[in-house]
Amino acid sequence: MKIGIVGAGSIGLLFAAYMNGLFDVTVYTRTIGQAERINRNGVRLVKGAGPLTANVRAKALGTGPMDNDLTIIAVKQYQLESVLSHLPAKGALLFLQNGMGHLRLLEQLNVEAIYVGSVEHGALRETPDTVSHNGAGLTRVAVFRGSPDLLEKVASLLSDTFPMKLEPDFYEMLAGKLAANAVINPLTAILGVRNGELVENPRYEKLLEKVFEEAAAILGFKDPQDRLANVKRICRNTSENRSSMLKDLDAGRPTEVDAILGYLLDEADDREMAAPLLRAFYEMIKGKDSNGRESC
Amino acid sequence: MKIGIVGAGSIGLLFAAYMNGLFDVTVYTRTIGQAERINRNGVRLVKGAGPLTANVRAKALGTGPMDNDLTIIAVKQYQLESVLSHLPAKGALLFLQNGMGHLRLLEQLNVEAIYVGSVEHGALRETPDTVSHNGAGLTRVAVFRGSPDLLEKVASLLSDTFPMKLEPDFYEMLAGKLAANAVINPLTAILGVRNGELVENPRYEKLLEKVFEEAAAILGFKDPQDRLANVKRICRNTSENRSSMLKDLDAGRPTEVDAILGYLLDEADDREMAAPLLRAFYEMIKGKDSNGRESC
To answer: Where does the signal sequence lie (chains A, B) (predicted)?
Structure first.
């Protein structure tokens, strides 16, 4: 089975390294330089016992036709619009973006099968061809449109080494992840703390609950207490991790705040809900985003 | 005229240096060591052209009777309760604490004349006997109880070198300062920025307005737009300054958050007002307070 992976960041490289061998994998990079480097060196996976090298084929995106059974789109949400025109009109697509803002873009696509996924692995791209797998987790996937057949086949082939779990309802799945992201990312980024700190420090935990409350109201959760417990569990399970938003701010990279808080605030506006805390954190992250890091 | 100054932090030393010569000044320190050092070296005032030395008399607080015409209490709000029992029962008292939480303590005192003040100078204690006067401003003072006569006399003697301005209404004076502190201190401390950044960065300015709105509602301002303009003016006038709360957090010292946000939230609770942003910033500052600085 031919698998295309669009985007060679941490998630794209992680999927390439684990799926290569079981599938015929091509990675589509943004630059020709990175494609050449991966074709020369393979993708190095740093994990536990020692690095493994996967001999993955790579092409720069847009330099030729894409002909895959499944194409996995592993770019950030804010990069999605720029890659959409390069995606194939045939085969199935799997989108791994955070948030839910990308769903309205997917509705406009003409492909028969569209899947969405939510990645629960910790991964860090160390060089253009090296990815470190820091936290083993799983990938939750669900059907957005069409038949689940291909997705089920891929999931069964991956089995234990890189588990992919089929979820019955894409909205529930993405909304759950979004709520966790909307709470953990902005709070850790503004407070400058690792994930675990949000539940270890009683003051931060109280704040986490208040912020979660606003997100849960907007997303219309039927079981907010279970969802809140899940967010706290994620904080404990990834206790030593620094969130992606904290790392992005520290590195002066753009954050995913629009995909996460921006989406929730748009939804809140549509329904005339207040959400003062989400709005405050949005402004704080955007303020830091626009400034780069402060010197004092 | 005999002036006592309780507390030899930045504000206490600043007042001692400027009032010495015009008045017979005694500084009351917390430790015997600091009193000995000041008696030996005087108080060094670093400002503009070069340092000046004021030969100020110093005593450790509680080591003897206090017999002054005016005693100025220049300790932080959270240190106030521990010095109250040492204050003289005669003469006038001038309290320079931030916030308004100390007013209920003042009501219990038996002294005839009580004044309150609000210091608009920038000062930094560099060593136990050296203070740097970074930002020349003024001290606003008002009568809390009794006759203004002594206060007027002191103000006229200080005149231009260290101006003291009499305000007609202590509540208006302290509420105005409190609103500015409630906005500028927590925001700069959590965002890690200097004061000017709050009005230079449009995202932060929007946030400042939202936080101010909550404080203004609690304090019952009749002219919120003028007050907001004043807060922004303070940000611009002290543009390069790092707020006291930011400095306290950075140095791992306790902050004045209880005197500032804690007071406002108590008032909000009494009147069943929500104040979600003030509450969130309170939890964030308290969380950082309790942790010392984060390492990541």
So the answer is: none
Q: Choose the closest CB to B207 out of A210, A280, A290.
A: A280
Q: CB distance A287–B203 less than 8 Å?
A: yes
Q: What is the pLDDT of residues B231-279, one digit of tens each?
A: 999 999 889 999 989 999 999 998 989 989 999 999 999 999 999 999 9
Residues A83 and A221 in one domain: no
Q: Is residue B293 part of a domain?
A: no
Q: Does B295 touch chain A if contact means CB atoms closer than 8 Å?
A: no
Instruction: Determine whether the interchain pair B207/A287 forms a contact, defined as Cβ–Cβ distance below 8 Å.
Output: yes
Q: A281 and A178, same structural domain?
A: yes
- Does the beta-carbon distance from A284 to B193 stay under 8 Å? no
- Dump pLDDT digits (tens) for A157-174: 997 889 999 999 999 999
**Could A283 and B192 be called an inter-chain contact, meaning their C-beta atoms sit closer than 8 Å?**
no
> Looking at CA atoms only, how far is residue A279 from chain B in angstroms?
9
Which residues of chain A form beta strands (DSSP E)?
A: 2-6, 24-29, 43-46, 52-54, 57-60, 70-73, 92-95, 113-119, 122-127, 130-135, 139-145, 164-166
State whether residue A296 sits within 8 Å of chain B by CB. Answer: yes
Cα B88 to Cα A295: distance, rounded to the nearest angstrom: 46
CB contact under 8 A, A287 and B191: yes
Compare all CA atoms of chain B with the CA of A206 and give the residue at the minimum distance: B283
Residue A272 covered by a domain: yes
Cβ atoms B2, B153 nearer than 8 A: no
| Residue that is last in its domain, among B168, B197, B221 | B168
ipTM over 0.85: no
B284 touches chain A (CB under 8 A): yes
Q: Of B13, B7, B168, B132, which is closest to residue B80 (Cα–Cα)?
A: B7
- Asked if A197 is an interface residue toward chain B (Cβ–Cβ < 8 A), one would say yes
Structure confidence by residue, pLDDT tens digits, B90-115: 899 999 998 898 998 999 999 999 99
Report the alpha-carbon distance of residue A251 to residue B296 in Å, rounded.
13
**Six-digit token string for A57:** 């084929």
Pair A48, A128 in one domain = yes
Active site residue B177: yes
**Residue that terminates a domain, selected from A112, A141, A168:** A168
